[in-house]
Every structure is written in C-alpha cells, then in structure tokens.
Design brief:
Length: 436
C-alpha cells in the first residue's frame, strides 16, 4: 500500500491539482498547472530573487564572520556566529507567521513588507557602533524580514509547476546560490573600497529594485481562499505534526541543516587561517556557492527524471564523506579549493529537493506542512554554527586548530540525515532502482 501511494504521488499530477494550494480558492479550480508561460516564469524569477535577498545573503555571512573576527578579536567565534545564525534561524522560523499573514494579505504583501525590513536593516547596519547592535540589526531585524519573504517562493511557484517541480525548485534556490557568488565578492570589495558604513548602505540601495521586482511579479494564480467555517484563525492544520512520515522528513532536513551552516560560515575563516593562495582567500565563499548553484539546478533536473529521493540521498552521503575525507586533511591551496568546489556541489541539492519532496508526498495541506517544516529547521540553523564555533580558537590565530573537529561534526550530521531519509524511502518504495 505504501509503495503504491508513493508511486501515485510521483506519477499522478492530478493529486496536486485537486487540492487547494496556499493561494487557491476552494470554490473553483484554476485547472492544472501550466508548466510554463510568461506569468509562471516571472513568478519563478521572482522566487529566485527572493532567495537571493534572503538566504543568498545568509549564505554569504562567512565574509562578515571573518571581518568581525578581525575587528572584535576579544569575542569568541561562536558568539559572533550567532549573528548569522539568527539570520538563518529567523528566516526559517518566521515561515509560520508569514504563512498566516499570506492568507489575510496575500504573498506579495508579505514579500514587500519583508523586503522593506531587510532594506532598513542594512541602512541601520551602516551606523552601528557597538557589537550588540550587530545582533539586533543584522541578526534579528534582517532575519525577520528575510523570513517574511522566504516561504512564499515555493508556495507560489508550485502553483505553476507540477511535473517540473524539482527543476523549478532548483531554479528558485539557485537564486540563493547565485547571490552567494556576487554578495560575498561585493561585500568584501565594498568594505575594502568605501568602508563598512557605505558598503552596507550601497547593499541596502541595491535591495530596493530587487524587492520591487519580486513584489510585483510573485503573483499567485488565484487569491488566497477565504477562511472555512470552523477553521482556526491561523488557518494552519497542526494535526500534520502527527504524521510520522512527515516528521522523519522534517527531522532529517533539520539535521542536514545543522551540518550545512557551520561549513558555510567557517570555510572563509578556514582558508584565511590556512594561508591559502590570495584568490582563494578572497573568493572561497563565492566558489562554494557557485558550485552549489550547479548542484541545485543539475540535480533538480535529474531529480524529476530519476526520482527526488534517489538524487537527494546520495548527495547527502557525498556531503558527509567529503567533510570527513577531504576537509580534514586539506592543508594546501589545491586541497582547500577542491573541497570548496566538491562540497558546495554536493550540499546544494538537498536544500532545493526538500520542498519538492514535501509537495510530492504531502500535496494535501501543503501550506500547513510548509508552515511547520521550516521552523523545525530553524533550530539547526541557530545552534549549528554556535556549536561548531566552540571548536575554533578566537582572535588572530595562524593555525587551523579545531577545524578537524568541525569537519567531523559536519560530516556525521550529513550521514545521519542520509540514513534517516533512506529509511523513509524504503517505507514508500522498497525497490532500489525504482523512481522515487
């Protein structure tokens, strides 16, 4: 029975068409997803832009981490990492209130409000004068604005795509990867050329047209439905938390996230303390995110053909193995570069495939599933870099002491996530070569 259910969810597009999505009206069906068209592609581009504005900047925090390590040598690495951890944590955690707000105001209003908060965050960051202000302005304020935008990428775009759901998800999340290439280069270059204050003001000004484009074009196919009789005021079905299959996917994603962000936040500091070649020091964060872009788009395409579980699980295993087998012995520029490229490619797919798998398995009540899925992952984003930071000595250090422990921490978590997802796949489909 479970095998047939998994096969039907994968192959039968009507399962996604007959169930109201976050913005569909229960009173009339908008028909099957068009799988393309001008509005669909504009919505997808807007979703990618939102990803660039939210997680694209969060993924680039490694540049700020290194800058703060040098500016505030008296503060520990794990304390400084809380700034970036707050950004990622709140981006996920705000998914639930943002989903509720979407029902009453629409996704475009939530994207516009979140974008405005992010713009103000960078404007205020330019006038900070004390470390505690960074936690409030860059961590708390940006995280809230980012979270108001983030969840609507998949929610709106999945209304336009079903058969191409994985590749659409890959293209959306590629916005974060592309931003992870140009934001680190831009942030580092601006700080070096015009200083910290004006560098962040310029970033705030760059956000304005990007937010305007995303707000204008992330249009749902139909407006949010009216509240049903007897439905709670939040319009969230919390009974989805009782679905143990969903909880396995939910916790597995959170465990993988727990291992992802320590690598993203500390790879720049690792390259600096290792003393790698200057170009690698300057562009390692961009290199990791560029490789992530390739992984997300290519594996999203392959996932639609071969099965999303079949692609996600091997890449999680590869992410863990690379952390243990390549990062630990990396003591040269060539080895550090090889790790940045291969690990970036391997870690990209699971972020883009997870929402597609969620829509594949739990098309009914998808807004409720999304609303509680991302807040669970927020715990991993918050505590992962903080735990990893305890391994690393603070201040001006010319060795990579502690990074071997960090790499083991990252590798084991990815392997654990792969193991739990493998078990979940066997529940739905026992044939190893079957599409799932």
């Amino acid at each position: 029975m479970d095998t047939e259910r998994g096969r039907d969810l994968e192959k039968t597009p009507s399962s996604a068409h007959t169930v109201p999505s976050p913005q569909q009206s229960p009173r009339r069906s908008p028909g099957p997803p068009p799988e393309g068209g001008l509005r669909a592609w504009l919505a997808l581009c807007s979703g990618a832009t939102v990803m660039a504005l939210s997680f694209g900047m969060v993924n680039s925090f490694g540049v700020y981490q290194s800058y703060y390590e040098n500016k505030y040598p008296h503060m520990s690495s794990n304390t400084l990492s809380i700034i970036g951890s707050l950004q990622g944590c709140l981006t996920f955690a705000t998914a639930l209130p943002s989903t509720v707000g979407m029902y009453y105001l629409g996704p475009q209003a939530m994207v516009g409000a979140g974008g405005l908060i992010c713009i103000l965050s960078y404007m205020f960051l330019s006038i900070t004068t004390a470390p505690w202000q960074l936690f409030v302005v860059q961590g708390l304020m940006f995280g809230l604005g980012s979270g108001l935008m983030y969840v609507h990428c998949a929610g709106v775009v999945f209304q336009y795509f079903h058969r191409r759901k994985a590749i659409a998800s890959g293209l959306i999340t590629s916005g974060a990867s592309m931003a992870g290439v140009y934001w680190p280069i831009g942030v580092r270059g601006l700080i070096n050329k015009v200083g910290f204050a004006w560098g962040n003001r310029i970033i705030g000004f760059l956000y304005i047209p990007m937010v305007a484009f995303a707000t204008t074009n992330l249009r749902p196919r139909v407006p949010p439905p009216p509240r049903k009789p007897g439905q709670n005021v939040l319009r969230v079905n919390f009974r989805v938390l009782l679905n143990w299959r969903f909880q396995v996917l939910n916790v597995s994603f959170a465990v993988a996230i727990l291992g992802l962000f320590p690598g993203l936040f500390y790879v720049d500091l690792f390259c600096q303390r290792l003393g790698v070649a200057r170009p690698i020091q300057d562009y390692n964060v961009a290199i990791v995110n560029a490789a992530t872009l390739l992984g997300r788009v290519s594996c999203g395409y392959v996932g639609d053909k071969l099965g999303r579980f079949n692609v996600m699980i091997p890449t999680l295993v590869l992410s863990g193995v690379l952390s243990l087998a390549l990062w630990i012995p990396a003591r040269s520029s060539a080895a550090a570069l090889a790790f940045c490229i291969t690990w970036g490619f391997a870690t990209g797919p699971f972020v883009s495939l997870a929402p597609a798998i969620l829509g594949q398995l739990f098309a009914d009540e998808l807004p409720s599933y999304l609303g509680v899925f991302f807040p669970t992952a927020s715990v991993g984003v918050l505590v992962g870099p903080i735990i990893a930071g305890t391994f690393i000595p603070p201040g001006h250090v010319d060795t990579v002491e502690g990074f071997d422990k960090l790499s083991v921490f990252v590798g084991v978590l990815f392997l654990a996530a792969a193991a739990s997802l493998s078990a979940l796949r066997l529940v739905y489909q026992r044939r190893l070569l079957a599409k799932m």
